[in-house]
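Predict structure. Chain length: 179.
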Amino acid sequence: MASLIQSVALAAAFALGSAGGPPVSGPQVGAMAPPLRLQDQHGTWHTLEAERGKWLVVYFYPKDFTPGCTTQVCAFRDDIVALRKAGAKVFGVSLDDVQSHAEFAAKYQVPFALLSDAQGSVARAWGVYAERAGVAWARRETFLIDPQGRVARRYVDVDPQENARQVLADLDALRQAAQ
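Prediction complete.
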C-alpha cells in the first residue's frame, strides 16, 4: 500500500511539472564521474573504479514499473548487444531497493545491472536527486563515462524510447574520433 501511495505521489509530482528542474549540480562533461558503490538486483556490489578502462553508461530513472522507466529499461535491454559490442557496460540507477530491482529485472528480462540507491546519496552526488511532498526520486538523466572515468556526455532531457540509441550513436562517434 505504501508503495502504491508513493507511486501515485510520484506520478502527481511529474504531472505538476516538477521532474526536479534543470541540473544545478553534478558532473559536467569533462569532469570526473563521482564515485559510485551500489548493489544490483542480485545483491552484487558495483563501483565505477572497477569499471575503469571501459565505456560506461549510467542512466538514472525515477521508479521501477512506471511507464517511462519500463520503456527506457526495455530500450537499453533491446540495444544491449550493440552497446556491448561498442565496448560499453550499462548501469541503471534508481532510489528503489534491491528487491524492487530484482522483480523489475525479472519481469522485463533485464541483462544488465540495476543499482539500488535507496538512500539517494549517489543521486545527490550526480546532481539528479529530486524530492517533492516527501517523495524522492532520481531525475531521468544519463551519463556516458569514458574509459578514464570522465563524463563524455550528459543527457538531461531524456526520451526514454530514444535514449539507448542516442547513447549508442554518441558512443560510436566518440570512439571513431579517438581513433
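Summary: Residues 28-178 form a domain with the Glutaredoxin fold (CATH 3.40.30.10).
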